[in-house]
Every structure is written in C-alpha cells, then in structure tokens.
User: Which sequence fits this backbone?
C-alpha cells in the first residue's frame, strides 16, 4: 500500500498542478524524484509534525490540494490540535495518508502504534476516513481525494486482502448474505473475517470507507438484529455509528478490535493480533459465542446458573 | 490607498484617520481607557492597513490580495477597530462586540468576518499556516505577500520554532512576521527575539512599535531569498 501511495501521489503531482505533498522526513526517499521535479509543491519540513499540518493547511488556504504523510501517531496524535484548528476550524481540506496502522511496526514498539487514530478523528466533524484493504483501493481513494477539497484520512497498512472489494461511492459491499448476525469487516480484516466465518450463517459486509458510515446498507441487509464489528483499530470505534444506524431497532452488538492497552512487547503484528483476539481463531470463537445455535439452552443456563 | 477607496464605501463616511480609532475602540470597551492587550497591536495594525497591505474591503477575497494572519487572537479590539475604520464591516458591529450572535468575538473567526483570513485564539498556529500559505502562493505564481502578526509570549509555543526553520529553509521572501514585543513572555528571550529568527536565516529588524514611519519602512523592505521578521517593541505589559 505504501508503494502504491508513492506511485499514485507522484503521478498526481505530475498531472495536477493543484496537488501538493508535505512530508516530515518519513518516506522522503520515495519522493526524491517528485521533489526534484516539483520543488514548489513537494515540501519536506523535517521532523516537525506541527509544521507538517500547519503547512499543509496553509497550502490549502492558497488553493492547493495538499497531501500530508507520516506514521499514524505522528500524523494524527502528535499534531492533533493542528487537525482540529488549522484544518477544521479554518475549514480547510487536506488528504492525510498514514502508515503504521495500529501496530504494523510492532518490532519498534508502542511509540509507533496508533490504534486510536480514528477514534480521535471521530471527535472532529466532517472527516472522510478510508481504511483500504488492498493497494487498488488505496489508489482509488487517493485519486478521488484529489478532486475534492474535503478533509480525508487514508489509513494504510502492511496488511492486505487478496483482492479489492471497495465500492467507489464509499458504501459497504455485501460479500455474503445469511440469516444470522451481520459482520462488518473493516479494511484489512476482511480475509480473516471470511475465513473465521466460513460455514457460519452470517451476513458479511466489507467496509473500506468507515466515515461516513454506511448505516443504510447495514439496515438493508440486516437479518437477525445483531451486528459484529471487526475493526483493525481501537475496539468499538464504530459502535456508536452502529447504534445510530439502528436507533429504532432493538439489537445486539459485539465490537471486536484492538483493546485499550500499552504494548510492552515487540514481536510481529500477528503476535499482537493473537494477543487481542484478532486472528482467525479469536474472531471465530467470539462470533460463535455471540450467535449461539441454541438460544433456549443458553437462556436456561443463564436463568438457572 | 485603501482610504481613498473608502470615500465611496457606505459604511465609512470619510477617509479614516488614526484619530478615529479611540472612539471605535470605545464602542467595544465602553470607556476611553483600554487594556494593554487591546492596544499593543494598534499602531502596527494601523500601519499595515493604511500603508502596507494590498487589500480591498470591496473585494476581500481577491486572489491577488496580501494575506494578513492575526495569529495572536487575544485582545482583538484593535483589529476590529482598524477593520471597521477601513470599511470591511459596518462600524455598528462594534457595539455588539462579544455579544451572543455577534460576529466579533473575543478571538476573531475568519468564517464570520469579511477580510479576516483565519480564526485564531490558540497560540502558535498563525506562523505555520503562514509558511504553508506563502509556499502555496509561490507555487501558484501569485506574488501576494503573507504577513503574520504574533506576540512575544506567543513565541513560547514550539510550533513557531518549527515554522521559523521551515520558512527560512525554503527562502520564503514573500513572508513577513511582525512580533509585537510587550515583554510578556514569562521566561523571556535572552539575547532578543530577532536573534531567534536571524540564526535561521531570516532578515530581521527591531523597530519602535509606535513609530509609523519606522514600521512602514520595516514592513515594506524586501529581502530577496529570505523571510523578514519585524520585532515591534511597545510598552512592557505591567
């Protein structure tokens, strides 16, 4: 995904004089040629993330369409007030493209993890949030973003699904229809959700654009009024969106994702997935427990137990 | 220049003069004595709008306008008085300053006031924005200037120091920062404020923040390949 980001953004810089790119050292090597070609529109501010966002916002004020990029914690968490004020309060747009996701950089530790990035953006109005699950989706979102002046966040990950499934309009894609709960798989979680739900009578929706949240499709496909969110970031981030979409429908909800934690171990991303129950086995176990095959037996146990 | 335009503007019956400002300020504060935060910027703002900025109250969004960013949003009465004097909005707005529903709050919001480029209040945002704005204007081939007003205490915020380096490294000679120095930074700036800018490659000038001719010279002198920092000293805040 990071490679595709570099290729597509370089091409946008070549072909659209409105597009600019602001870097804070991260990935600067991948844009050396672009910086040489477009020295006025490719700006590396060094390791200065407040200036990264302020500069991008100022460029938007002048009419440019800035893309800004860094590791997720340094793009969203460190300059958060700049997102709130320099972009939001000034009503300026930018395309923020992060790498690192929740713990792609597990081996370098917690400083480079950002499971809370989207939850933070949820405190701000009018952000479009893409969580692509495939490089083709990255390309589609980056190209579409160049045509607007909106505030857009594109969260890249080292994790990818085998194929792209996004809908160009940002709606959720129906991948499997059943009579049990509806499982909403976000971005890179899709392939493991499909594996985890094999043989289960569930509906599977794929979400690679999570803000705005496509509650309409969720309502349309909902069979049993039960929803499982499987998000690759802070668990429950989209739970309020589900609740809002189903305000008038009594429903159950299970939110899977990264629990609040301070990581004290390194390892590989899949070690973290396993620790947080986000591997295939963990997801399957919790979805199975959420959709008991025999409700009467479960209820009886509860009452007598 | 701007004043001549105003002879036809409906909201200002005459070419504004500096002597109009106390009355305009009083419409907001209700008396003739004014808080230091309200008046520390008064002369710089007056000189900017009278003699420096290429802005037109009849067309405040003109593409070629100079961009003035009031980063130090605290104590905006002087700003409002100068804008009203130049016809950016009716002077009657001043009477409702700070009232619910008034576009004129205790920190300015560019979305609400004609001619105001940004919303400010939280310190340390104007200069990074100004760096990006100057970069963007240059990329667009637009010769307009970007002028950012900050306070000496505002410079405490580290975001300014990120922008000071970036602005100089990219040779933004259409960018000017004017620092209103009323000695209000709690820990101070040993060796002077101008030195912080000069070390990174800015052209700097120390000037009396009440001397209109000196301010005009400092704010209109171009330094090729370098941004300019004008440190305008006014009475220390007690």
Assistant:
């Amino acid at each position: 995904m990071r490679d595709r980001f570099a290729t597509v953004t370089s091409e946008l810089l070549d072909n659209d004089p409105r597009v600019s790119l602001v870097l804070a050292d991260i990935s600067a090597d991948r844009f050396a040629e672009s910086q040489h070609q477009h020295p006025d529109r490719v700006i590396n501010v060094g390791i200065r993330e407040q200036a990264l966002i302020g500069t991008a916002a100022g460029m938007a004020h002048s009419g440019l369409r800035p893309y800004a990029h860094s590791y997720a914690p340094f793009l969203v968490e460190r300059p958060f007030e700049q997102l709130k004020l320099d972009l939001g309060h000034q009503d300026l747009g930018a395309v923020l493209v992060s790498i690192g996701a929740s713990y792609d950089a597990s081996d370098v530790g917690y400083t480079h993890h950002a499971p809370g990035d989207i939850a933070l953006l949820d405190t701000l109005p009018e952000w479009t949030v893409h969580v692509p699950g495939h490089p083709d989706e990255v390309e589609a979102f980056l190209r579409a973003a160049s045509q607007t002046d909106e505030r857009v966040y594109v969260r890249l990950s080292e994790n990818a699904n085998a194929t792209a499934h996004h809908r160009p309009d940002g709606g959720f894609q129906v991948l499997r229809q059943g009579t049990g709960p509806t499982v909403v798989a976000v971005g890179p979680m899709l392939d493991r959700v499909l594996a985890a739900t094999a043989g289960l009578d569930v509906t599977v929706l794929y979400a690679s654009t999570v803000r705005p949240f496509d509650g309409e499709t969720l309502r349309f496909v909902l069979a049993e009024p039960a929803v499982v969110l499987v998000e690759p970031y802070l668990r429950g981030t989209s739970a309020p969106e589900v609740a809002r979409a189903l305000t008038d429908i009594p429903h159950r909800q299970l939110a899977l994702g990264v629990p609040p934690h301070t990581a004290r171990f390194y390892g590989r991303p899949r070690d973290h997935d396993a620790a947080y129950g986000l591997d295939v086995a963990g997801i399957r176990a919790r979805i199975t427990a959420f959709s008991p095959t025999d409700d009467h037996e479960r209820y009886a146990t509860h009452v007598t137990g | 220049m701007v004043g001549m335009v105003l002879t036809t503007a409906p909201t200002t019956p005459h070419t504004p003069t500096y002597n109009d400002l106390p009355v305009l300020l009083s419409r907001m504060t209700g008396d003739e004595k004014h808080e230091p935060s309200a008046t520390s910027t008064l002369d710089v703002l007056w000189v900017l709008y009278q003699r420096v900025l290429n802005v037109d109250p009849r067309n405040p969004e003109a593409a070629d306008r100079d961009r003035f960013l009031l980063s130090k949003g605290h104590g905006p009465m002087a700003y409002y008085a100068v804008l009203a004097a130049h016809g950016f909005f009716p002077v009657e707005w001043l009477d409702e300053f700070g009232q619910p529903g008034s576009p004129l709050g205790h920190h300015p919001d560019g979305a609400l006031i004609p001619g105001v480029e940004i919303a400010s209040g939280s310190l340390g945002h104007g200069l990074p924005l100004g760096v990006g704005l100057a970069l963007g204007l240059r990329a667009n081939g637009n010769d307009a200037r970007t002028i950012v007003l900050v306070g000496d205490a505002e410079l405490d915020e580290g975001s300014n120091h990120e922008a000071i380096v970036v602005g100089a490294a990219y040779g933004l000679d259409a960018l000017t920062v004017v620092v209103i120095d009323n000695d209000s930074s709690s820990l101070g700036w040993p060796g002077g404020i101008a030195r912080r800018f000069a070390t990174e490659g800015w052209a700097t000038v120390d000037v009396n923040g009440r001397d209109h001719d000196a301010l005009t010279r400092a704010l209109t002198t171009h330094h090729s390949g370098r941004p300019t920092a004008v440190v305008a000293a006014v009475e220390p805040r007690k």
